[in-house]
Amino acid sequence: MARSVRIEYVGAYYHVMARGNRREAIFFDDDDRRFFLQVLAEACGQTGWQVHAWVLMGNHYHLFLETPEANLVAGMKWLQITVARRFNIRHGKGGHLFGDRYKAILVDGGQPYYYETLLDYIHLNPARGGLIAAEKGESILDYRWSSLAGGYALPFGKRAKWFSAAAGLEVMGLKDSTSGRREMVERLDRRILEEGDRSGLVPLPAEVDARMSHLRRGWYWGRQEFGQQMLKLAGKLVGKSRSRSYRRSAQNLAHGEQQAEQWIGEGLRIAGVDAPELEALVGSDARKVALAKLAWEKTTVSQGWIARRLVMGSPANVSQALRRISWKNLEKKLSPGLSKFLRKARG
Length: 347
Prior knowledge:
It is a single chain. The protein has 347 residues and is an alpha+beta fold. It folds into 2 domains: 12-236, Transposase IS200-like (Alpha-Beta Plaits), CATH 3.30.70; 257-346. The chain is 50% helix and 9% strand. The chain has a 5-stranded mixed beta sheet, sandwiched between helices. Residues 203-213 and 241-254 have low confidence and may be disordered.
């Protein structure tokens, strides 16, 4: 069966969820969770994503994403591949970490009801999973690995730049203050006690479109009008030409090949490396590795693309070269001009 089209557009909101292969664990310990959040931060830096909520469970995760650019697919591809690779390296494993295809439910994020219910659904996951014993006096805040403890409960200066707590608090009519943040937590704790095993389930309107998600299945979460708009957009996407020129359009490559090509071309010019010399240089040449590292860390291009563009052999060769050296040690081997260019590009 053909896969359904991923609907991407500027300013889209998504509820993204992915599970471990065969529903096995994707987080063995807290270091795995820290690594995941680090990769998520890198993905947000590359794509411009804003995260409105997240939770890391034992064998799955949930994200509430906003994409200022139409780049969910490219960003998720990089995120999933990078998390899986780092997990396998750390634990000496191989094969797939995630099972099936990640779910990406379109969200009517401009409507307070749908925004707020998704926020609650994500934050109440630990309670629904039996990780919070509310009857024993535990709070949802006691679960460290969600955006409640890791974002909303923190003052502004301690939050990640890619995390959009202000929007969530505003939708709930709460101030971004100590009392406002406390009220958010207390409201969720009351829900757990009042609803018991039903906490986190989402009440639906009396009449709903059968295609509408209830945040466990379906493909959109919002008004039926929103669903119809998304259907029309999907039809346009399916009808577009899938020619090479379309796939390589400026919009699709805003944080991918276009940016990587620009940086690599400029870096090679500064380094004085022309096409014949690039072919002759070994894959471990510091100039090649530095430009590969920039493209990998700051865009969504694959290591296969980097290997082809910089003549570095295979994607495995690129991966090995990137793991072996830090920016500090790399810059010792580069010219002042190239080092200055790289520092500016990295921000």
